[in-house]
Structure formats: C-alpha cells, structure tokens
Amino acid sequence: MLSTLRSCALRRVSYKPASLHKQSTSYITRPTIISPGTRGYSTKMQTYHAVSTYRAWRHSLPPTSTVGVVPTMGALHAGHISLARAAASENTHVVVTIFLNPAQFSPTEDLASYPKTLEKDLEKLEELNASLPDDVPGRVSAVFVPTVAEMYPAGIPLVRDQQVGTFVEVIPLSAKLEGGTRPHFFRGVATVCTKLFNITCPNRVYFGQKDVQQTVIIRRLLFDLVFDIELRVIPTEREKDGLAMSSRNVYLKGRRREVAIVIYKALKAVEEMYENGESRASVLLEKAREVVRNAGSEVKLDYVSLNEPQLLEDVEVVEKGKGVILSAAMWVLPREEGEGTVRLIDNLVLS
Ligand SMILES: Nc1ncnc2c1ncn2[C@@H]1O[C@H](COP(=O)(O)OP(=O)(O)OP(=O)(O)O)[C@@H](O)[C@H]1O
Ligand SMILES: CC(C)(CO)[C@@H](O)C(=O)[O-]
Ligand code: BAL
C-alpha cells in the first residue's frame, strides 16, 4: 500500500501547489491541447473491478503518461462523454470510474431504482474512442467499476449513525444549497472521491458544471487535502430544449418531461433580467420563483440562490465580472401511481 502510494506521489517531476481561488472569474476551464504521440503503446479499453488490478495497470504506465479521471455513477449520457472527450484532449490516458456510491444517498432516496446500464456505458465509451481524431492524445484506456465491498470494506449502511470508518467532510460548504435538502450528500461525495483519487492516481479530474456545488467542494477538497491533481470543470450538456442532461432524466416521461424544462426557463429568465440591468438578488430570485409558480402544481421549487463561487456565500447584489453562480433545485411531482418524485438541479454562471 505504502509503496503504491509513494510511486503515485513520485510520478510528477515538479510539484505545483493547487490554487483555491484561481478560477474566480473564468469559471470554466477550457482544456489545453497537448501534442499526441506520447502514448506509444496499446490503449485498448480495459475494465477493472478490483483496486489491485487497476493499480497494477496504473503503475505499469510510463512516467511520461498523464491520466485524466472522470468519476461517474454510470447511466452515461452525452454530458459524461463530453467530460471524457475533454480528458482525452489533454491526457495520454482517460480513466472513467463507474460507481453508484451508496454513501451519498439517504435511506429515502433512489439508490435502488437508479438506472444501471453498464454494458451500454462501455459501448458508449468505445464509440467515443473510435470517434476521436488521431491528433487527440488520449483514449479511454480504463474503466474502473468497483464493487461496494471494494470501496467500503467495512460496509456502508445508508443510515449515517450506523456508518463506521473514515469519512471526509468539506465544512461548511457541504451544508449549503444541496446540503440543505441532502445533508448526507456531500460527505458521501467527498469520501468516495477521496478514495477514487487515491486509487486512480489522476493528474487531472473532470467534473461537470451541472453539479456546480460539487465542483466547488472538490476544488476545496483537493486544496485542503493537498492532492497534486488539477480540476477541470466542463460546461453543461443540454437537450435541444435546454434541459440539462442527467442520468435521472430517464424517470421523466410525457408530461413530466415537458414541465421539467421550467427549471432552465426560470434560470434563463433571471439571466435575461440581469442582462437587462437588474442586479438585486432579491428581485432576480423572485423572478425565478414566479416562473416556477406559474408553471403549475406539477413542479415545486426547492431553492433558487445566487452565490459567489468560492465559499458559496449568498450575494445581495450581482457585481459585473465576479462570476456569480445562479443555481436551483426543483421537484417534478408524481402524476401516476408508481411514479416517484424527481429532483432536478441546474445552474448558470452570471458573469
Ligand atoms: N449535462 C451534463 N453536462 C456535463 N456534465 C455532466 C452533465 N450531467 C452530469 N455531468 C457530470 O458527470 C459527472 C458524473 O455525474 P453523474 O454520474 O451523477 O451523472 P448525472 O447525470 O449528474 O446523474 P444524476 O441524474 O444522478 O444527477 C459529474 O461530474 C456531473 O457533473
Ligand atoms: C462525483 C460522483 C461520481 C461521486 O459519486 C457523483 O457525485 C456524480 O456522479 O456526480
Ligand atoms: N450528480 C449527482 C449525483 C447525485 O445526485 O447523487
């Protein structure tokens, strides 16, 4: 274990400390393209289920290789693929992790019904590999699909008081916004990401802006735990009508899919108001509430909020050039017997 970790830490020639605040205005990073040709060996995509076999592969890579890791919970869609594509554009190897992490679900959430489509996921990653032009340096070389026992050897009951072992919390960021409704959530995310980073040894990790608070928390985690890993935040992929792609969208059929777009419309209405000169948060947020209210009783707003991007503190006035996060969560309520409530999140950056 120790020697593995040491070789992981030693793979870099120079150490560059992470900066917590470096992306305050330009929030989304555009990947820089590096030249191809450093792979120089087979990049056939392999699936690993065990930490030991993954590590054996990871440590077999030449020291010149770079690894971009894309953590996911599976049920891959074009949003996930855009993360993997970004990783391929600036690393010699892309590793996609697929792990439905129990620790981020409460006992009343949808862990049991969460879509599981591993075979299709692997096909989509193979398709991505086949579609990448020759001058892109990386391909998806490995897919890490661990078992729950592999990730949580001591078990992982969903009831927090019953959990034993080591957990990671990013305080107080994890209690804000999503943390208000899902108090267990970011402890589960921070814990599993810490484990995944230790296992996969990435040079860079790729997260979607769709889960914007998650990106703020991961940035803080990388900084506080002194991980030698760069964070990339990739723009949100949307359906034609603007709905943010999400694995949970499969729950939305017919009329529920139609009304789901209200969350995006509410955010766009705020953005338009801001662009027309309104900067008071109270007025902007009320606009979003009004749009959701007017959509009827099938949807219910959980929160809408304007926050600065480092500590997620509420802003009262949106100042130009500061990159303020406008985020919202909304429930789409059941219409028919057997349907569950679907919770959607979305955000825009007002800059
Ligand atoms: N539409 C999207 N555009 C870009 N990235 C996305 C999009 N949706 C998800 N991601 C990113 O993919 C990564 C894995 O997310 P995850 O597997 O939870 O998918 P998801 O679609 O967000 O699922 P869920 O429906 O559970 O929220 C995260 O970094 C997430 O932000
Ligand atoms: C980062 C993550 C894969 C951790 O389980 C999850 O929260 C997600 O898919 O966004
Ligand atoms: N992308 C967020 C994962 C979750 O809601 O559990």
From TrEMBL:
It catalyses: (R)-pantoate + beta-alanine + ATP = (R)-pantothenate + AMP + diphosphate + H(+). Its EC number is 6.3.2.1. CDD domains: PanC. Pathway: Cofactor biosynthesis; (R)-pantothenate biosynthesis; (R)-pantothenate from (R)-pantoate and beta-alanine: step 1/1. Pfam families: Pantoate_ligase. Keywords: ATP-binding, Ligase, Nucleotide-binding, Pantothenate biosynthesis. Belongs to the pantothenate synthetase family. This is Pantoate--beta-alanine ligase. It comes from Arthrobotrys conoides.
